[in-house]
Specification:
- By secondary structure, the protein is of the alpha+beta class.
- 16% of the residues lie in helices and 35% in strands.
- The chain has nine helices and 29 strands.
- The strands form six sheets. Strands 1, 17, 18, 19, 20, 21 and 22 form a seven-stranded antiparallel sheet that branches. Strands 3-4-5-8-7-6 form a six-stranded antiparallel beta barrel. The chain has a six-stranded antiparallel beta barrel with strand order 10-11-12-15-14-13.
- Helix 1 packs across helix 4.
- The longest helix is centred in the middle third of the chain and has 14 residues.
- It is globular.
- The N terminus is likely disordered.
Amino acid sequence: MHMTHRSLFLFTAICLGWLSFTACAAEAEVEERFPIDHSELDRTNTHTFSSYADVLEPAQNAVVSVTTARIVETMRGGRGGVNPMEEFLRRFYGLPESPSGSDRPSGEREERVERRVPSGIGSGVIISSDGYILTNNHVVSDDSGRAVDEIKVQLSDGSQVDAELVGRDRRTDIALIKIAREGLPYLNMADSEQLRVGDVVFAVGNPLGIGQTSTMGIVSAVGRTNLGILGSEGYENFIQTDAAINRGNSGGALIDAQGRLVGINTAIMSQTGGNIGIGFAIPITMARQVVMDLIDSGEVMRGYLGVSIRDLDSDFAEAFELPGTDGALVEVVQEGSPAANAGIRRGDVILRVDGRVIRSVSSLRLTVAGLRPGSEIDIDVHRDGELKTIPVVLGSLDDPVADLDAPTSPLEGVELKEVTPALRDEMDLREDRGILVASVDPRSPYASALSAGMVILEVNDEQVDELADLRSKLVSGRVNRLWVSFRGNRGYIALRMP
């Protein structure tokens, strides 16, 4: 479970593209494999229920336990290897490392061995008979945000099988894994957009690693956003429930009273880490779109508009002559973006996208991101007291030149600033050059290596004074050497780049 702060400025971004007939056919085939049951839930409440066992049994058979591990390399000597206390003292108190072989008996030598380090435990939901399983991205990621090396799945019959990672999406916290089995029990998906507050739901998963558990509650709220659970770049649209969710439930199923999958349990809100009746699940309609993209192309394709936007309050509504506070106010339009090319202007208030009402910044981000790059849409805006409909062809969020609010930092989740005389005086720095680590998001893949206040002086033994230097000298796919200054001391940091 994780919590982070959201950015005040949100936007959505993109490049132009088109899909070939082959790609469209493949997409249709994937979509057909995971149908949505659009029939409404029976809410007549005319029946007296003494048990939900028949509703829960299929779900219990389709929910699995997911365990993960990292594989690390260590050096082992011929007679028992490295002394753990010696290694601790060397790493944290500066005890010098013995020269290779200088204090070893004759004939003894080190060997490189692999060690399996457990990473975490969670849950998953089988969504097809041929072994596709939905879970959370954070279930199959290590503490630094990288994919784990090993994933194992325990089925309801107690058997344990290896799973492969098909793909994962950090922005929605969805991951798709697959096991080599056929004829598996799986859950049908319902239309989670039809959920209403008060609908009965069940959370099924493996809380605290004690074994499969089912809990009951209701839908407490829908469309929960701005919680900061997925970070400033995340797409939050959570179902809130009071069905008990605890650690280990992540990736498990939230099902309705007809046994259909409506959500993937993801997070809890708690000061103690335990259940207090506020749990959150990703709507299955959102998760399903991610699944189709991952199977079809291995990545999630999101639409991009190219605007910086803000929510409206009563003062803004009066200033822009609006009847209410629904909508998203355009503050900046990126030059050359789909929005600019279509004629959207600063000061426009976006009210609808293809007929869907836009009530806030969050709803605009979710709506645009849920559309494909290259989609032709109509955007209704309020401009100078009039309603205008503007046709727009969306771009792609993955287009690097179309990223208006993209951070200038080449290190994800790390805010960097070039050291200047003014910054040196302001921050009372001891260095008069280099790149200052101003802040580090706890979910950044570099959070374990970098700390706020560090000054990066060199990368791979080359001096860096500007962000452009840092970006050009960091080498992808390898461990980079950083020479840093921190609290009056200088030393090396090893930083692995994806």
